Amino acid sequence: MSNRAVIETSAAPAAIGPYSQAIKAGNTVWISGQIPLDPDTMTVVSGGIEQEAECVFGHLAAIAEAAGGCLADSVKINISLTDLTHFSAVNAVMMRHFKEPYPARACVQVAALPKGVGIEVEAILVL
After folding, report:
1. Which of 54, 57, 72, 127 could pair covalently with 97 via S-S, beta carbons 3.0-4.6 A apart?
2. Which residues are catalytic?
3. What are the structural domains of the chain?
4. SS3 letters for the chain?
């Protein structure tokens, strides 16, 4: 018997590859990297990095809720940006979605992300 469960919600984009939106094992939830896709049309949101970041954190919140938690349950966030000059803008968006104490976090610049987006964020939650 396994205590592992797949977490899915239509409020976040369906996987675009061989992965699950999230996996819950015991009281820990691993949310796959989320990119700024409209879950209904699977098209990239427009408007720049702030709109992309808002979209991504919204997806993370929806998946956390589907797992029985919320973003405040995050213990680790990993952010990938294609342009590290967007670091401050993404920080501002993140601060609208989290309160202190903030989760541990890494933020790195990468050469490219799926579908040409500027941001991808993954999270680990403990419920």
Report:
1. 57
2. 107
3. 4-126 (3.30.1330.40)
4. CCCEEEECCCCCCCCCCCCCCEEEECCEEEEEEECCECCCCCCECCCCHHHHHHHHHHHHHHHHHHCCCCHHHEEEEEEEECCHHHHHHHHHHHHHHCCCCCCEEEEEECCCCHHHCCEEEEEEEEC
